[in-house]
Amino acid sequence: MCLLTKTIRCEVTPKPLQGYESPQHEAAAFDALWRAHLGDCVHRKLPRKLDLRRPHYRDIREYGVPIQRRVSLILDNFNELCEKLTSHEPGAMERALFKDLYSRVSIQKDDGNLLGFTSHVDSVLTSLKPLAAPSPPEEVSATADAPLPDLFPVKYTLDLDTSHIYRMDDFFPLGGNKQRHVHTLHVTHPYYYFWFPQQKLARAIQACFTFAAAQARHLYGVDTLTPPEPVVVQCTYSDVDSMGFLVYQLNTLRLSNDDGVKNQVWVKEAEPLYSACSHKDGLQGHDGLLFDHYLALYRSS
């Protein structure tokens, strides 16, 4: 995904990803997780569990909260808790949360390929002011010398779906009379089948690029190749039992080739929210520091 979006990964951790490392909110974060996994009253018959050690054995189907609902409830409970903790801070009333949004942008490459990026996210937190760029102009200029991954002899479009694109129309879901900027994207993986961590991260980077590129073209015009100011987007990517964070800075839309300034991303890898969860034993091994990182992203400006 870094090759498709002309993005390099930076190692220095920006302030929004550092968190607060405070145990004060651990009890409230534990309650938010418990209500999503064990306290919800909506129960359905869940898919049958597969034991890889005994693939021939048909386990009993259990009743519980569907994974799609649990993943969404975790974000809803965390957002509600963040609103309570930041209600007294300046600019708290300027935030708005939108559910179930998608964005679309098309990029033409020099080799003749027309790439269409479409991203659907669980929710988007917006603000009236754009986020400050974590990378100064001199560091942005230095990215021109940073190499992108070389996949030769594999072609970068190997796993992409091929379709006929007749209209290169971009779509930015927040284009209204009152200008709003993307603050934080919430990308979820509400699936029962297995995803590799690299796949989850790539999906989050693709969502950040799509929304940031659509916002840049909405603000500065569809022909914009270098935004006057970098477009910064934060993101959380989570499934039913883990959560990761990243900050994305869009410096250029000149993706026709690999030369010149590149986009930047800072990543905090996904970590487990808990070690075990069941109605019999409850929620065990809860990591309260992950919510502090979530709150740090919510508070950033």
UniProtKB/TrEMBL annotation:
Keywords: Mitochondrion, Ribonucleoprotein, Ribosomal protein, Transit peptide. Pfam families: PDCD9. The keyword Repressor does not apply. GO terms for molecular function: structural constituent of ribosome. The keyword Mitochondrion applies. GO terms for biological process: translation. Its main location: mitochondrion. It is found in: Mitochondrion. Signal peptide: none annotated. GO terms for cellular component: mitochondrion; ribonucleoprotein complex; ribosome. Belongs to the mitochondrion-specific ribosomal protein mL37 family. This is Large ribosomal subunit protein mL37. It comes from Ornithodoros erraticus (European soft tick).
